[in-house]
Specification:
Layout: H1 2-13, H2 20-46, H3 50-72, H4 76-98, H5 106-120, H6 123-146, H7 157-226, H8 232-263, E1 271-274, H9 275-286, E2 295-301, E3 306-311, H10 313-329, E4 334-348, E5 351-362, H11 396-406, E6 410-416, E7 420-436, H12 439-446, H13 450-460, E8 469-473, H14 477-488, E9 493-497, H15 500-509, E10 516-520, H16 528-537, H17 542-546, E11 549-553, H18 560-565, E12 571-574, H19 579-589, H20 593-599, H21 628-634, H22 639-658, H23 668-684, H24 688-702, H25 706-731
Parallel strand pairs: 2-4, 8-9, 8-10, 10-11, 11-12
Antiparallel strand pairs: 1-3, 3-7, 4-5, 5-7, 6-7
Helix pairs in contact: 2-3, 2-7, 3-4, 4-5, 4-6, 5-6, 5-7, 7-8, 7-14, 7-23, 8-11, 9-10, 10-11, 15-16, 22-23, 22-25, 23-24, 24-25
Length: 733
């Protein structure tokens, strides 16, 4: 019996394939059948008229037929309509006149009928049917008043009491049951919503990690090459590559940011920043969007802008990026203008303030007046049919509005369809340094010549810290190369290990007392959080408990920063590694001005040792599966740099392949992490054939396709070893 009830509930009451109205209708019908049977028995015991008993019996039969037909042929919509007319508008009045009239308990059933109208019907249908039912109910009472002979009275007082008791019990139980059911449905839907939100968060975390890991190598190595003395054309190409990577990052960040905004966990983090850096980086990130379109970009900068401001530079840059990217996307030909200015406002907290204003104007397709109100809606791309070839997530403007409002600013739009649009953003900022930008710097920005100036400035401001010794932990060799290269530009001594276990042993041995640890999150055997827990809680030393540990993570998802901070980390550095953020972390946790003074250190002049690779033809590696030309171009046509990473790749690959030798169901998670690392590193050095095979195995592991992994694993290892042998031969002197 218990199994029957469970199956019945699953099919008819808690079946998500049915609409809520259909499920409530089924619940009403089942209750009605049992209530009708009980009422029929009660009326037989009460010895009321045959007509009253027959009407109750007919009601139960109609309810049963309606239930069967509606579920068999999926006709709930029509069954609800028919059942309400027959039961509430026909049978209830019939029972009223044949069962004691106003002396009976039919008043309760009339109330129940009104409740059913409101519960099961919608919109105009509900309003019309409800009015009809109220007229019928009132008509029944008026008819009895005017024509008492129409009513069959009860023959005994106990019938009156019994009928009222029965009505109260049936109506009360029914209404209570429906309320209880709807409460249960709400609870189930809430759990589903929570589960869906968690699934979304997990999905975003996976996507973020999958994309950020290779981006870390691309942008990190590109950043390192940009700091070297290349020729002008190479620097320009490297800069464009780096900026294109940043554009891809904005897409990832849009997904993560809207999720943070929806959950109420989005934060505004103000810092001191240079207005020149903000404008320069924004322009250079977006100007590549012109590509081959006949579009001209114009920049106007107010020379009276203060040099240093206090605010969330990252979010302001993101706002401008969103608006500029839209301007370039929707302008097929013509012009795009960006003007940046400011005006003083009331001081607050002892600091002068200004209203930073940016206007982005274009000659694009414009916006229809009726659509302007929808412009900042989430997941919305207006005129999607006409703009179907234009890329975009539909999140940018929604994020922009939310961020501007969180900074107590405003955003407005003026547009004429077919002529273009102007977006104006105003955000209050505190003034750190009242010294103004000046005409020279403003003109340099407007001529797009500030890029080289900013690059030189960044080179000059790298503080040298040779007194610092750090440990970097990451299971992907290429990621170790990126982190090592970035940290060494500060003169820092860097040790690298590929696992949490090795890091623990180094900290336990204390042969070197590191000043900080940079710890990857996702690693096989023991991830970063587990490793830090061991270091903090199981190694009995003040050194292990207090050493700064910085999380290196490609999972830039909601709550991750707090997750790391709650598990023994001091700070978080997301991949791809941003040099500005790295610089901030080094300044915050490691820099020691006193030691610099003792050592007589100054700022790095940026004069990196120049390698002379020559400009002639490089001999191509005749290795199947390696796109040597592509790889060389990726490293700015600097053969020594590319070969150095190839050597690192060749040295690290055998250890990773060794981990793939045994594949079992319980090892699939570790297998996926390892093959993921091989995939990213292979693509990073342009070993594309091997990267593609690794990617296929990673997807199979992700989908728990054990047999597919087993079938492809040995051939993959053979191919990788063959490739590795050829690569080592080519790299040999």
């Amino acid at each position: 019996m218990k199994q029957f009830i469970a199956r019945f509930n699953k099919l008819y009451i808690f079946n998500d394939a049915l609409s809520l109205e259909a499920r409530i209708f089924n619940l009403v019908m089942i209750f009605g059948i049992f209530a009708g049977c009980a009422a029929m028995i009660a009326r037989i015991v009460e010895k009321v008229s045959f007509i009253a008993v027959g009407a109750v019996f007919a009601t139960s039969v109609i309810i049963y037929i309606a239930f069967v037909i509606s579920n068999k042929f999926n006709l709930h919509k029509y069954a609800i309509f028919a059942a309400i007319i027959i039961i509430c508008d026909l049978l209830f009045p019939l029972i009223y006149f044949s069962n004691g009239g106003i002396s009976s308990g039919m008043g309760g059933y009339f109330i129940l009928g009104i409740f059913l109208h409101l519960l099961l019907l919608k919109g105009k249908t509900c309003a019309v049917m409800l009015v009809i039912n109220v007229i019928i109910v009132l008509g029944s009472y008026i008819a009895e008043k005017l024509f008492p002979g129409l009513v069959t009275p009860f023959s005994a007082d106990f019938q009156i009491y019994a009928d009222h008791i029965q009505t109260v019990l049936v109506s009360g139980m029914f209404i209570g049951l429906v309320v209880k059911y709807q409460t249960r449905i709400i609870e189930l839907e809430r759990k589903k919503a929570v589960s869906a939100t968690q699934a979304k968060a997990n999905f975003l975390a996976n996507i973020s990690h999958e994309i950020r890991t290779p981006l870390n190598a691309i942008m990190g190595l590109g950043e390192l090459e940009l700091s070297k003395n290349h020729d002008t054309e190479t620097l320009s190409n490297l800069g464009k590559m780096n900026d294109s990577g940043k554009i891809l990052l904005t897409i990832i960040n849009d997904l993560l940011d809207i999720s943070k905004i929806e959950s109420g966990r989005f934060e505004i983090i103000p810092v001191d920043y240079q207005i020149t850096s903000l404008i320069n980086d924004t322009v250079n990130m977006n100007i590549v969007r012109i590509r081959n379109k006949p579009v001209e970009f114009h920049l106007k900068v107010d020379e009276n802008l203060p040099m240093m401001l206090f605010g969330d530079e990252l979010r302001i840059r993101q706002i401008l990026n969103n608006l500029l990217s839209n301007a370039f996307k929707y302008t097929r030909r013509g012009d795009v203008w960006l003007s940046v200015s400011g005006k003083p406002i009331d001081a607050r907290g002892g600091r002068q303030r200004m209203l930073l204003e940016a206007a982005i104007k274009d000659t694009g397709i414009g916006i229809q007046k009726e659509n302007i109100g929808k412009l900042f809606s989430i997941y919305s791309q207006l005129d999607a049919k006409s703009n179907r070839l234009i890329e975009g997530t539909g999140l940018g403007l929604s994020i922009t509005r939310n961020m501007v409002e969180m900074m107590n600013g405003s955003v407005s739009v003026e547009s004429e369809y077919g002529q273009g649009s102007t977006f104006t953003v105003s955000i209050p900022q505190q003034i750190v340094d009242p010294a103004v930008l000046g005409r020279t710097a403003a003109e340099s920005l407007e001529r797009f010549r500030f890029y080289e100036m900013s690059r030189e400035r960044r080179q000059r401001t790298h503080i040298q810290m040779p007194y610092i010794h750090v440990l970097v932990v990451d299971d992907v060799p290429t990621n170790l190369d990126v982190a090592r290269g970035m940290l060494m530009s500060y003169g820092i001594t860097v040790d690298c290990v590929p696992s949490g276990l090795e890091a623990i042993e180094l900290i336990r041995a204390r042969a070197v007392l590191y000043d900080a640890i940079f710890m990857d999150h996702m690693m096989p055997q023991m991830d970063g959080i587990e490793t830090v827990n061991v270091i903090r809680n199981e190694l009995d030393s003040d050194y292990a408990k207090n050493i700064p540990i910085i999380a290196l993570t490609a999972n830039a998802i909601i709550g991750n920063e707090q997750l790391f901070l709650e598990n023994g980390f001091q700070d978080v550095l997301t991949k791809p590694i941003d040099m500005t953020k790295l610089d901030n972390i080094l300044q915050k946790w490691l820099r020691n001005p006193q030691k610099e003074a003792e050592l007589g250190l100054g700022k790095n002049t940026g004069e990196d040792e120049k390698t002379n690779d020559g400009e002639g033809e490089f001999s191509m590696f005749a290795i199947d599966g390696l796109n040597y030309k592509e790889g060389l171009e990726r490293f700015g046509n600097r053969k020594e740099s590319y070969h150095r990473v190839l050597v690192s790749y060749a040295a690290g690959l055998p250890a990773l392949l060794e981990k793939l030798n045994c594949v079992n169901a319980e090892d699939l998670a570790d297998y996926r992490i390892t093959i993921h690392g091989i995939k990213g590193a292979s693509y990073g050095v342009s070993a594309n054939a091997l990267g593609k095979k690794a990617e296929a195995l990673e997807m199979a592991a992700k989908n728990n396709e054990l047999e597919t992994v087993r079938a492809g694993n040995d051939p993959f290892i053979d191919d990788a070893n063959e490739f590795l042998s050829a690569l080592n031969n080519a790299l040999s002197p």
